[in-house]
Please model this.
Amino acid sequence: MRTRRSWRRAGASKLESASVFGLCFALVLVGCQPRSEAPPGKGAKGVSAASTDREGADGSHARAPEPEVPREETEPVRVGRLGDLEPAVFVVRGAKAGGRLVFLHGMCGHGLGYAQSFQHAAAKKGTLLAPQADVPCGAFGAKWSMDVKALDQRIVAAFERLGDSGPIEDICVIGMSQGATRAAALARNYPERYTRLVSMGAPTEVKVAGLERLRAAVMMVGSRERKDLMLGSERALKRAGVPTTSIIIPDADHAAMGPHPEQTMDTVLDWLWENARPGK
Model:
């Protein structure tokens, strides 16, 4: 028979294993919301999933139509790490003749899970880069330093490494939480390179100064977050002449992509491409 001490040791070992598993699972949830068991665009019983909410700065509230996802676009998309770059850069290789997109994760986050969560929507528009932040934070995550110039250089170098020829311009930059502040900073400091902005869960209203040349912008928050910062940013950008809308991430807390990130981001990216002002 086991002694009481051996039972305690066994229990402690199980608890430690459960804690490690719980930590890993929580990191996965933060980086990438669990996918529905049903195909994209369908609920568990074959009914269309909830459409993305869209709320205007004037207080109006409407449903954005749920996009149809063609069968061929539900096939696997290649997502992986780009070479041996440090910090790591993850890439979704999309349409060869498409555009350029960049996703910046939030504080102590990880870029890979976010990139995977909307890989098909991104691939339809072009190639997505998801660089890892440059300041380690905990065992797996990282946060962004204030060195926006170095971040821009990393992004340009990554696109060039992918064989992108010509000037690296007209990038759609997407930022979540702390990443939203760096996304706006990139667009402000390098307006010819970063021409479309998606600000998700930004901690403050977006400062419009320097963003007047944006071709289009989308402000976003989770449905369970405060909405005033998002709507204030939308109003300010519209006053500056930037085509802008606000879109709510359904059933989402801060830094989460919601239960249907593919549909949500499909709506966001389609709006940006359809409403963007002409480039130079």
Q: What stands out?
A: Helices lie at 4-31, 111-117, 119-125, 148-161, 178-189, 228-239, 261-275.
